[in-house]
Automatic annotation (TrEMBL):
Gene3D superfamilies in alphabetical order: P-loop containing nucleotide triphosphate hydrolases (3.40.50.300)
Keywords, in A-Z order: ATP-binding, Nucleotide-binding
Signal peptide: none
SMART domains linked to this entry: AAA
Gene Ontology molecular function: ATP binding
Entries under CDD domains matching the protein: ABC_Carb_Monos_I
Protein name: ATP-binding cassette domain-containing protein
Entries under PANTHER family matching the protein: CARBOHYDRATE TRANSPORT ATP-BINDING PROTEIN MG119-RELATED, SUGAR ABC TRANSPORTER ATP-BINDING PROTEIN
Residue ranges of every copy of the ABC transporter domain listed in the record: 4-243
InterPro entries reported for this sequence: AAA+_ATPase, ABC_carbohydrate_import_ATPase, ABC_transporter-like_ATP-bd, P-loop_NTPase
Length: 246
């Protein structure tokens, strides 16, 4: 049984058809590269999975059960986390404080409640170790590299015990060395049985870590095939329309 399944998902914004009957299945520990030109429907598809808005038609299933997400918190409660391109981190806080943002560990001391920073730093350190990241819990985010920032954002999804992690252009504006760090983080998620949907314009990244590539064009899925059975040239043709479908 697939971990995540989309059946006939469509989205209309007034007269505009952003998505037209998209089917998609993802298995545990599988990474799927989601590619397409601007306006192809990638972001709309991911936002539907993440609970930002409901599909106009079709259904979402998790482990075979139909889901109805009314807001992102509903999707998060079922194990779907999204790492946005801007990462949504607070520069003036430490790595650990960002990991636990909105989810602080608290303790009671008589009538008083306090934040247990020691526990948060300890758990954050464990998460960074799991991800084999050099990020340190007490470091301020504003002093971090792009790769370390991605580690903080991904650690936050691990804290929530995510089953599916949606990543929006995680390597768009970072150095070659930091790209390698982020791709290794994705491999770690896969190794832990977490499904990853990677939106990316960077062909080498998709072919390096993804098991399958899904190509969108004008709201329609035009290809869904194993990476091993495709090529960057074919994907480019599918994105531009030079190749109709594969």
């Amino acid at each position: 049984m697939a971990l995540l399944e989309l059946r006939g998902v469509a989205k209309h914004f007034g007269a505009i058809e952003a998505l037209k009957g998209v089917d998609l299945t993802i298995e545990p520990g599988e990474a799927v590269g989601l590619m397409g030109d601007n306006g192809a429907g990638k972001s709309t598809l991911v936002k539907i999975i993440a609970g930002n808005f409901p599909p106009s038609e079709g259904e979402i299933r998790l482990n075979g059960e139909v889901q109805h997400f009314h807001k992102p918190a509903d999707a998060r409660a079922r194990g779907i986390e999204i790492v946005y391109q801007d990462l949504a981190l607070c520069d003036n806080l430490t790595a650990a404080e960002n990991v636990f943002l909105g989810r602080a560990i608290t303790r009671k001391l008589g009538p008083f409640k306090y934040v247990d920073y020691r526990a948060m730093y300890g758990r954050a350190a464990e998460l960074f170790k799991e991800l084999k990241s050099e990020t340190r819990p007490r470091d301020l985010v504003k002093q971090m590299s792009g790769g370390q920032r991605q580690a903080v954002a991904i650690a936050r999804t691990r804290l929530a015990e995510a089953k599916v992690v949606l990543m929006d252009e995680p390597t768009a504006a970072i150095s070659v060395r930091q790209v390698a760090e982020v791709l290794e983080l994705i491999r770690r998620l896969k190794h832990q049985g977490i499904a990853v949907v990677l939106i990316s314009h960077r062909m080498p990244d998709v072919f390096a870590v993804c098991d399958r590539v899904v190509v969108m064009r004008r709201g329609t899925k035009v290809a869904d095939k194993p990476i091993a059975h495709s090529s960057p040239e074919e994907v480019t043709g599918l994105i531009t329309g030079a190749i109709r479908a594969a």
